[in-house]
Amino acid sequence: xxxxxxxxxxxxxxxxxxxxxxxxxxxxxxxxxxxxxxxxxxxxxxxxxxxxxxxxxxxxxxxxxxxxxxxxxxxxxxxxxxxxxxxxxxxxxxxxxxxxxxxxxxxxxxxxxxxxxxxxxxxxxxxxxxxxxxxxxxxxxxxxxxxxxxxxxxxxxxxxxxxxxxxxxxxxxxxxxxxxxxxxxxxxxxxxxxxxxxxxxxxxxxxxxxxxxxxxxxxxxxxxxxxxxxxxxxxxxxxxxxxxxxxxxxxxxxxxxxxxxxxxxxxxxxxxxxxxxxxxxxxxxxxxxxxxxxxxxxxxxxxxxxxxxxxxxxxxxxxxxxxxxxxxxxxxxxxxxxxxxxxxxxxxxxxxxxxxxxxxxxxxxxxxxxxxxxxxxxxxxxxxxxxxxxxxxxxxxxxxxxxxxxxxxxxxxxxxxxxxxxxxxxxxxxxxxxxxxxxxxxxxxxxxxxxxxxxxxxxxxxxxxxxxxxxxxxxxxxxxxxxxxxxxxxxxxxxxxxxxxxxxxxxxxxxxxxxxxxxxxxxxxxxxxxxxxxxxxxxxxxxxxxxxxxxxxxxxxxxxxxxxxxxxxxxxxxxxxxxxxxxxxxxxxxxxxxxxxxxxxxxxxxxxxxxxxxxxxxxxxxxxxxxxxxxxxxxxxxxxxxxxxxxxxxxxxxxxxxxxxxxxxxxxxxxxxxxxxxxxxxxxxxxxxxxxxxxxxxxxxxxxxxxxxxxxxxxxxxxxxx
Length: 722
Hints:
alpha+beta
């Protein structure tokens, strides 16, 4: 049973090449005219390798790896040969960057990089094949008896006047000198390093700067990491090799997102051969059902629930039960590639074929074609096709690149098969192309006040308890002003990123709600507008609010003192750092930092009891008629807004370019929120206890009127006047 799809070593590649050469030596025959080939984007080309997998660039150039006396070749997106690197510097399992440059290990196990046919640099890593990080750098593992095992990062460019790259990361991960069992994968904000020991994996998560996250975890059989670093894994019994537990782990929150018994949703005694991540946070599994001797695709949601399953038709029965290769596109479509049986008119010569089935996100079969040889002996020798299985095949712009072998002459060819909408292969395509893309020049960042907490309905996927509770409202101010003037473009499908509960670090460094951070580490010059509210959660405003309701938040309380201390000591630095990173991320955008409104009306000592905000009244001493909690709550908002305004002015003063950072006040004597506070003289624009029956966290947040007539009106006016 195949339980490991790890990168092949040079020894394995050499053996595969030798076996292929022996097979070619004893075989004969040519391709028959009666073969059946699916529609191709460009004619098949002779492949130079039997075991390596091709790599595709963001522009559709496909690079065919090599080993043992062969050469590496790159073809354009129309099938024209544009690069050939000879056997002396042959690269197995190549990777490509956004510019189409090629990286990999040569026959000496050194890392090499090529621009066109010219070598850029070489580096003696000699451990595992390299990967491409989302930051555009190259990562690998090197090992030596004197230094142990190290995770290294290299720039795509060489040192000036040298054939050596710039090393930007060097982290020791072990004191031993052996690198057997190690592998690495990239995700949006870092690298996950696997150290396989027997039937389990130790997964360690590193940022691109080399910081070891607390997400280090002992797992079962880890299969893959999605764009956001969530790790899919499963556990099985050593005695029967049947799968027992399937799970997804999130390193940012250091918790298991979901974990389920495979018996519960798949049935007993099943074997999961492979799991691949889906763009929506779910997974697709290839599952072997021994009772029916069949392979089935099983789609799981981002909560680990079975969405659908589809049995594959006529798979080839293989003794080791090697399952189909699964390729997932950034569009969410799924391709299953597997060897299948083909009936012929000659029982003594059965034929194999390569079947390609594509299912869309709903499980509908949208493509079902096979690469078949001649099945009619009267038209010539019965022939077939087979493929080297073990990994997913790359896709680009409706093109699936697959290497297949023709029987009986054993010649290998690279096919560019035309399939329904795929985009790029996920998650690699998302890393290379920095997806999800910003589809509009307006980006709305921030916390619950920007997300629209409490104003239902929320956008799909942002109201999943325990997984994603960003609660992005369709009536949040950013949605209401989106596309309303020449200065306020549309948010589009990815511009709205604010998330309830966000702190400053969630905007720039610390992923949240299984979505990653709100801005990327690379800049996006296409963005013209950014709006945000941030800082309230950094000072513990939620804790203060709960104390106001259930206990006391007066200026003499510990919770008030803690919030005020954070405002004065911690918040300024956090805000300054955050604003700088946002300005760097959106170098051509106006950035509007919006303040927080007063939530409670200005009740003073001597004012009568008001049942609408009874929890803010000093009921322990009602004769004194004091509203100390109101005084404290309003004081915190005032001090918070002062620090936000001061931080904006501080950053604005650092350079002329920073003048595009603007503070938008929503408190003070001219605020439209005046009178509309809880216990105010006018209709309330905030969620009070009686308005927040669905969720206690809704309390003290702007309601629909507050988002529309308050925030949206103020922010829209400020942007149009700017």
